[in-house]
Specification:
The chain contains 6 helices and 11 strands. The protein is of the alpha+beta class and 244 residues long. The structure holds biotinyl-5-AMP (BT5).
């Protein structure tokens, strides 16, 4: 499984570019990557802004042809996070995944992931887009523009990394986890997620907009949804944020 990496100079959002490309009936092969040197309107979940200076970090989207149901989108995000995490560990950066879509280093966010579903009747394609923002060469000043603690590979290692080479290297790690996800979805990731985000039984707090849910972390459900015990009942949580 190899990726076809296509670089763009400046786009609004690589996820949006890929969605427009597919929905307008243009040809796209499985495992195509759209990467950009500048992303001017990058976004996360709920249209939250993804901030990234031009020619500094990686912003890219991968097209994964798939007929899997929408329930499997969260675990694709998780597979992407594990791939990024393994890549960072290979650079001696102590990264950990954080539910549902982040990679963190020393309690600071280094990577955010946004997976979306797309289909086009024009070319009879149906698939998922795995959008990844990874802070590569972001400096301290740039990190202060972000409204939550953030770090980058540069801030962790004091080395400037080539963006092209970094993306190429990352694709090898993503390949490993995406293949696993294609065979057994969340089942193939569960152990690694629990190892990195445990221990089970601890108290956690999940924020979903204004809503704050407290309870005992009980692990993950069939699709990667978070399970929390409250008042002796298990609640499944599909979206939200665990504060850093
Ligand atoms: C995410 O959303 O973390 C998913 C971000 C996905 C970005 C990629 S870039 C390529 C592709 N094209 C797109 O348009 N998007 C994808 P969420 O969990 O909603 O977190 C968003 C929050 O992360 C913001 O509200 C900020 O608090 C924080 N944030 C923004 N930019 C950041 C950065 N560079 N590093 C760390 N945190 C950041």
């Amino acid at each position: 499984m190899k990726f076809d990496i296509q670089w763009f100079d400046r786009v609004n959002s690589t996820n949006e570019l890929m969605k427009d490309h597919i929905s307008s009936g243009k040809k796209i092969d499985n495992r195509t990557i759209f990467a950009t040197h500048e992303q001017v309107s990058g976004h996360g979940r709920l249209k939250r802004k993804w901030i990234s200076s031009s020619h500094t970090n990686l912003c890219f989207s991968i097209y994964i042809e798939s007929k899997k149901s929408l329930n499997h989108i969260p675990s694709l995000t998780m597979a992407g996070a594990l791939g990024i995490c393994d890549f960072l560990k290979s650079k001696n950066i102590k990264a950990k995944v954080k539910w549902p879509n982040d990679v963190i280093v020393n309690q600071k966010k280094i990577c955010g992931i946004l997976s979306e579903h797309i289909n086009s009747n024009l070319i009879e394609k149906s698939g998922l887009i795995l959008g990844i923002g990874l802070n590569v060469n972001m400096n301290l000043h740039e990190s202060k523009q972000i409204d939550q603690p953030a770090t980058s590979m540069f801030l962790e290692k004091n080395i400037i990394f080539s963006l092209e080479k970094t993306l190429y290297e990352i694709s090898e790690y993503l390949e490993f986890w995406i293949l696993k996800w294609e065979f057994h979805e969340f089942r193939s990731l569960k152990k690694e997620w629990i190892d990195q985000t445990g221990p089970i039984g601890r108290e956690i707090e999940v924020h979903d907009g204004e809503l704050v849910i407290n309870g005992k972390f009980k692990g993950y459900g069939e699709y990667g949804e978070l399970l929390i015990e409250r008042n002796s009942k298990i609640k499944s949580i599909w979206a939200g944020e665990i504060p850093l």
